[in-house]
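Help needed: design a sequence for this.
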């Protein structure tokens, strides 16, 4: 505990850290906590898994008091991250309880309105926060700490203007903490306009490069799925994440893995919040060992024990590659990132190699059994019937029923 105490963390938070059985501060915690506790604005280069939540939690818990209005606001790109951050804040404030609420879209607004009346700390996604601002169900005049968590991701998701609108509604004499795995011109501009003489801290790497093995297979498009099945059968993995670039591919791969007897769940932005939560729960508690996902699931989620990351599609944006592989080889564990490459991935793959400092070695193709992949929903199609007369062609609405 002394290593944490040295950073200036107070006893109630130290006690909760002890309960969590953390032995030593992570790199980002060591570098940022003393600055955060001094009240400085901080730009921290860090990704999920770096321990950034505890870093900003320390400042927030130290500076907030129960029943004094909303004193801290944390903006996150996704609902899942909002929930996760709120949960972590509750854990670390166990001995100094605060009213902590997560607000995000896709769920009813009324319980949030009630919860916000008693909240000291709000974690939320930009869209829903703006919604509350417009309805005047949230007030920021007492905000002392503003955290932009995974700021790069928020910008990538098109929340730039929303984030700026929210920042402008917070008091000027606040502390602003920005966490981001990557940087961009837009982010630099934001930090210049909205931060007060910020200190920059960064950690060298999100994953331990010595523990992460990155490989690729070169294969034809129609054999991608067969190779994935072969690897899933032959690699000894604990939990595996399979990344696809589209919702359609995600559903297709998950469904076909199910048909081959694997316990696989799919998660992407097209699913309801309840469905996403259920799938993640099953993956967390080991009911499913394979999570097929789009990049929505790649960021922010804290999933332990992922031994293998498969890129079924190579990401269009090369930075996403770094985010994806950051799901494994965490906290000293070994990890493997396997890229399944077909002609349609070549351009994306060259960008990954050009724009990132990564070493990915080619593997020899094993002998694989060819599996015919089924398209999703083919057996779910309903005939267009009902109000169609004989010989009449279906209109657009009727076609949409397919
Ligand atoms: P984060 O980057 O905040 O999402 O944290 C990633 C994971 O690391 C979470 O499960 C934390 O509970 C855990 N964690 C945070 N700080 C430490 C630490 N100093 N030692 C061990 N685990 C930690």
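Sure. Designed sequence:
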């Amino acid at each position: 505990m002394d290593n944490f105490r040295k950073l200036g963390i107070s006893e109630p938070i130290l006690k909760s850290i002890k309960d969590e059985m953390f032995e030593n501060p992570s790199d980002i915690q060591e570098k940022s906590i003393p600055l955060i506790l001094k009240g400085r604005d901080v730009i921290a280069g860090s990704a999920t898994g770096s321990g950034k939540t505890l870093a900003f939690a320390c400042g927030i818990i130290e500076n907030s008091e129960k029943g004094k209005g909303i004193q801290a606001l944390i903006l996150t790109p996704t609902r899942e991250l909002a929930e996760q951050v709120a949960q972590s804040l509750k854990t670390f404030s166990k001995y100094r309880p605060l009213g902590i609420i997560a607000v995000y879209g896709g769920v009813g607004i009324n319980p949030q309105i009630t919860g916000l009346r008693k909240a000291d700390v709000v974690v939320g996604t930009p869209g829903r926060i703006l919604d509350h601002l417009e309805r005047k169900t949230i007030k920021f005049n007492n905000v002392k700490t503003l955290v932009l968590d995974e700021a790069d991701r928020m910008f990538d998701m098109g929340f730039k203007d929303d984030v700026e609108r929210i920042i402008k509604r917070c008091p000027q004499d606040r502390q602003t903490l920005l966490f981001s795995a990557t940087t961009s011109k837009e982010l630099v501009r934001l930090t210049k306009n909205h931060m007060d003489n910020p200190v920059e801290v960064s950690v060298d790497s999100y994953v331990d490069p010595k523990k992460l093995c990155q490989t690729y297979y070169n294969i034809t498009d129609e054999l991608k799925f067969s190779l994935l099945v072969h690897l899933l059968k032959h690699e000894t993995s604990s939990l595996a994440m399979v990344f696809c670039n589209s919702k359609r591919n995600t559903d297709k791969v998950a469904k076909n893995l199910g048909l081959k007897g694997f316990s696989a769940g799919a998660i992407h932005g097209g699913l309801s919040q309840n469905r996403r939560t259920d799938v993640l729960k099953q993956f967390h508690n080991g009911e499913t060992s394979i999570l097929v996902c789009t990049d929505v699931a790649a960021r922010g989620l804290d999933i332990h024990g992922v031994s293998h990351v498969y890129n079924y599609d190579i990401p269009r944006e090369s930075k996403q590659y770094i985010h994806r592989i950051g799901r494994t080889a965490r906290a000293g564990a070994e990890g493997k990132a396997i890229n399944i490459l077909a002609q349609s991935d070549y351009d994306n793959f060259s960008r990954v190699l050009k724009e990132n400092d990564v070493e990915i070695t080619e593997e020899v193709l094993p002998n694989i059994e060819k599996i015919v992949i089924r398209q999703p929903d083919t057996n779910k199609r309903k005939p267009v019937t009902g109000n169609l007369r004989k010989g009449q062609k279906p209109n657009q609405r009727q076609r949409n029923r397919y």
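Residues 378-390, 393-402 have pLDDT under 50 and may be disordered.
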